[in-house]
Fold this sequence. Notes:
Low-confidence stretches: none
Distance between the termini: 45 Å
Radius of gyration: 18 Å
Number of helices: 0
Mean pLDDT: 92
Structural class: mainly beta
Number of strands: 25
Helix content: under 10%
Order of helices and strands: EEEEEEEEEEEEEEEEEEEEEEEEE
Amino acid sequence: MIHETAIVEDGADLGDKVHVWAFTQVRSGATVGEGTTIGSHSYIDTDVTIGARCKIQTGVRIFRGATLAGGVFVGPGCIINNDLRPRAVNADGSMKGADNWTVTDTHIDTGASLGSGSIILAGAHIGAFALIGAGATVTRVVAAHAIVVGGSARQTGWACHCGERLQEDDEGWRCLVCHKTVPIPSQ
């Protein structure tokens, strides 16, 4: 389902049962997996890969170089950028062209959740089922299942597959809601 006001450019690859809502643009070269929903007023740049069954909320900006695995949640207003040293002009004052900047890849692993208004800087890697708090700025690697919050995101705990906070006991890290034990990487 593509809303009549959405722009899906020729060369964009949309899987089955993808929904693209109003005033959203999906650029040529973007790949969107089956069952994914992209909310209104969003922008998916060229060469972005979005896995199956992702939920992209309203007002999201995902720029070239981003790869999202399946089952990723991207909250309203989230930005995933791609340039570590953004400039509009070169040192001599001339306009910076498409050929004189470097796209830095960013990876979001299976089941991760990016909170509303979070900013994911180029080169970040967010592990599976990590939970990024609303408004957080992520500048580096976030471990699988980590919960990070803040202006410069810092870890405050570990998250289960179901999204609940893990608790440590004698057998490791366990979810008190779904009762799974989750292997946590050594520090």
